[in-house]
Structure to design on (880 residues):
């Protein structure tokens, strides 16, 4: 039998001070960066025009930029899209126009085409993708994305309150909020463009981190019933350790598929895979350090009265307890 | 034994259903006739998975009522009119499966898979609608001209189907090859050019229920159109008579027909004179009624014209298409009139009222979002997705089998079924596969093993606690259940919010995620369990389990 991290007894709750430090080390500069630099919103959110071109011969970004500047498109961004023949040109809308339409975009396309005709040569490039978004749609979408994240928090809180109790739900939300915020900072740090797909990625990180927390809490709930004598910190530690092999394996597989997506998945999917890759790590971290510690503090602040701890069945299963209490080093085989 | 058998039967049925929903099948699509450039129904065989615009290329447009040049009184109603108009023009786009959809009550979405020219598409959508009322061919001028037309066609070498020269046949029906076989059989067996033979055009037309109404079998519409477009036919059309197709397809028995109307060339009134149109249901007679009001000038014109045409039929034509069956003019009508639809539903009356309003009040549209995706981009994306998927599956298989050995093999078998069920779900429920959806599918392969991992770890714990193999498997499955259900319900909850928030591509991601979670639960809880049961039954005395 091949084993990884079986029968471990790491003191997760004991080292929580270091976890705080780690969170602070990432969050303080991250928050400053987010406030100073903000997010690099894609045209879906700001409104504007995106033109993706494919040229028959390699083109230099500098040449393109220079040519676009000369044609009065100095605000446009040029980004290589995988190779030196694929480029994405983005022009965001400066201010919200009254109509909410995309008429300005038509001008951009014409200007880009004129530029490319003169620099690359007519017929030597193809516009493979063209998107134009009016400011109204962009504004709406930002609102909806925000709302979607908030509403899923609400729904999950209600579900967990029903299945566990509200203290678990609140602790899970704390951990998940940590991950969502952390992922947004990561996006800002990496200068990833916030597209619809990235928002989908953030929501998936939310789901993934929650999944991780729920697995651990499920074990806490179960252990609470059969180990009445254990104090909460020890109980939490035991539960995290017991679920550790599953964590390693499940995330081993999800990280490998994410890696293949990042490597082979193409330019549209790559940022999504990168965000999710980060999300897996922050999800594991928060489920092991934030969620249990949050649960501990919430329990301390609002103790349970005659709840699960006293009303459950007597300790009738001593055997597994004895089998698992041995302090064993990781990876014995 | 019995439970294993019933489980295996269930699995087999699910596999059969999944495969059945994925095999290529005949689907009716509207395609463009390369000869005439017109649209007609045809059948193609394909795997029934819908590809999103980002994977097959095309144009996506979101439109709203343009209020920049002055407020529009009722934007919701205006966008409804615009939708009705764009639907009437749907064939003009010349693409296979266009989507015209109202979203959120104030936005019109038009999706044109395969279309490359946004300017052309926008032109069709934003063109002002044109409504006119015309009297149908009451004196059967067109019907009487048919023998002459047939004769002229015969002189030009065109005879009824099957009897013409091979050249003419291929010219007429080349785009309709799927139906050609059936057609040839129906025609006269010998290529005889006798005078008694049915005429080329008249053999396609069946007299309808009113003067000037003809029915054309749906599959022969392109043939009829190409005949009607010929110069010798155009020349022989009676003066002052024009031909207009109807919008609806009528089914009579096994066949469906499209109506062709011979109408007067000059409209008795146009949409400009129309001021109001509303539908209601008459309580007394229980019929659906559309009431309309004309302008003062229009009222005078209409009074004069309807006075001359009592007991004639009046075709309502929007953008060159006859809407519904022409109603009869019962008496002289002035500024206010009503169209009685008999026992037709109120819905149909509402639709007619919408048509009238659409022709009366143009709804200016502005494009709020536009995406044009070239077809090559989508092909590359699919190729990338398949590459990533294969690489991901290989890694997952290596991890699972090297860690769990025998049980890992069972999990991989379950994973194959998982992939099959997810794809079948996409196809069976008619969801659309998008680029993010493809990524979601690849990602979910990695996540799908989670339920299996939870179960296997539990079984290991039970074995470590000294339980027998049989008991460990039973309790492993039972104890993992709570965690699997709770974590998957949470995942589905977030995916649902993602679905309601997202537009097309992201919706596709949410859908594959939801389907994936459901499929992974079914395969892990039910299929893997069955595998274990079979294994236990074969080796009832087994003391160890390779897990």
């Amino acid at each position: 039998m091949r084993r990884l991290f079986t029968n471990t007894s790491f003191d997760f709750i004991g080292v929580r001070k270091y976890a705080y430090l780690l969170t602070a080390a990432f969050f303080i500069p991250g928050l400053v960066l987010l406030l100073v630099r903000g997010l690099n919103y894609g045209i879906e959110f700001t409104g504007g025009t995106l033109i993706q071109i494919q040229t028959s011969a390699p083109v230099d970004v500098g040449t393109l930029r220079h040519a676009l500047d000369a044609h009065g498109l100095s605000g446009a961004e040029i980004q290589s899209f995988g190779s030196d023949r694929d480029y994405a040109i983005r022009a965001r809308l400066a201010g919200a126009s009254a109509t909410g339409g995309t008429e300005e975009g038509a001008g951009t396309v014409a200007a880009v085409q004129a530029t490319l005709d003169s620099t690359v040569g007519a017929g030597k490039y193809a516009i493979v993708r063209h998107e134009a978004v009016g400011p109204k749609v962009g504004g709406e979408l930002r609102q909806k994305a925000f709302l979607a994240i908030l509403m899923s928090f609400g729904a999950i809180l209600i579900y967990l309150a029903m299945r566990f109790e509200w203290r678990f739900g609140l602790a899970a939300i704390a951990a998940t909020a940590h991950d969502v915020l952390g992922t947004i900072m990561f996006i800002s740090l990496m200068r990833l463009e916030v597209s619809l797909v990235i928002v989908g990625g953030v929501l998936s990180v939310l789901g993934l981190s929650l999944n991780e927390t729920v697995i651990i809490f499920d074990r806490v709930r179960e252990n609470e019933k059969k180990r009445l004598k254990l104090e909460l910190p020890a109980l939490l530690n035991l539960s995290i350790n017991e679920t550790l092999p599953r964590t390693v394996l499940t995330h081993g597989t999800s990280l490998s598929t994410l890696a293949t997506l990042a490597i082979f998945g193409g330019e549209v999917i790559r940022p999504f895979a990168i965000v999710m890759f980060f999300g897996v790590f922050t999800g594991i971290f928060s489920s092991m350090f934030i969620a249990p510690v949050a649960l501990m503090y919430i329990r301390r602040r609002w103790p349970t009265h005659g709840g699960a701890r006293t009303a459950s069945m007597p300790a009738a299963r001593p055997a597994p307890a004895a089998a698992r209490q041995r302090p064993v080093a990781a990876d014995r085989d | 034994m019995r439970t294993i058998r019933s489980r295996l039967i269930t699995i087999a049925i699910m596999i059969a259903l999944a495969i059945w929903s994925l095999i290529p099948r005949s689907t009716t699509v509207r395609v463009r006739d390369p000869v005439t450039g017109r649209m007609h129904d045809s059948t193609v065989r394909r795997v029934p998975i819908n590809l999103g615009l980002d994977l097959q290329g095309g144009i996506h447009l979101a439109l709203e009522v343009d209020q920049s040049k002055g407020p529009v009184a009722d934007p919701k109603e205006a966008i409804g009119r615009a939708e009705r108009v764009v639907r009437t023009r749907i064939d003009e786009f010349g693409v296979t499966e266009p989507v015209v959809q109202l979203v959120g009550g104030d936005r019109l979405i038009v999706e044109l898979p395969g279309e490359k020219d946004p300017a052309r598409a926008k032109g069709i959508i934003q063109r002002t609608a044109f409504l006119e009322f015309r009297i149908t061919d009451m004196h059967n001028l067109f019907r009487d001209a048919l023998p002459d037309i047939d004769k002229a066609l015969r002189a030009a070498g065109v005879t009824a189907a099957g009897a013409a020269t091979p050249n003419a046949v291929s010219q007429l029906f080349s785009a309709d090859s799927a139906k050609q076989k059936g057609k040839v059989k129906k025609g006269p067996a010998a290529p005889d050019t006798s005078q008694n033979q049915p005429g080329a055009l008249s053999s396609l037309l069946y007299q309808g229920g009113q003067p000037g109404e003809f029915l054309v079998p749906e599959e022969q519409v392109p043939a009829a159109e190409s005949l009607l477009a010929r110069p010798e036919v155009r020349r022989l059309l009676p003066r002052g008579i024009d031909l207009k197709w109807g919008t609806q397809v009528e089914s009579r028995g096994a066949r469906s027909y499209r109506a062709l109307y011979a109408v007067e060339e000059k409209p008795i009134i146009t949409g400009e004179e129309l001021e109001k149109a509303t539908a209601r249901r008459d309580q007394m007679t229980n019929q659906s009624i559309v009431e309309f009001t004309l302008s003062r000038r229009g009222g005078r014109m209409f009074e004069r014209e309807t006075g001359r045409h009592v007991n004639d039929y009046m075709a309502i034509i929007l953008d060159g298409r006859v809407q519904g069956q022409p109603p009869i003019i019962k008496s002289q009508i002035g500024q206010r009139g009503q169209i009685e639809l008999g026992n037709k539903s109120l819905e149909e009356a509402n639709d007619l009222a919408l048509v009238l309003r659409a022709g009366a009040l143009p709804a200016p549209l502005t494009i709020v979002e536009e995406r044009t995706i070239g077809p090559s981009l989508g092909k590359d994306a699919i190729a990338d997705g398949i590459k990533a998927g294969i690489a991901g599956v290989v890694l997952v298989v290596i991890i699972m089998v090297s860690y769990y050995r025998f049980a890992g093999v069972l999990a991989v078998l379950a994973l194959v079924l998982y992939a099959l069920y997810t794809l079948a779900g996409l196809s069976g429920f008619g969801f659309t596969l998008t680029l993010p959806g493809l990524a979601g599918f690849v990602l979910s392969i990695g996540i799908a093993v989670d339920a299996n991992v939870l179960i296997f770890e539990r079984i290991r714990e039970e074995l470590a606690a000294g339980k027998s193999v049989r008991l460990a498997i039973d309790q492993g499955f039972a104890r993992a259940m709570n965690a699997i259900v709770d974590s998957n319900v949470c995942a589905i909850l977030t995916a649902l919010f993602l679905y309601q928030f997202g537009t097309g591509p992201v919706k596709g991601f949410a859908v594959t995620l939801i389907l994936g979670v459901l499929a992974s639960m079914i395969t892990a809880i039910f299929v893997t369990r069955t595998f274990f049961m079979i294994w236990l039954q074969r080796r009832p005395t087994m003391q160890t389990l390779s897990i």
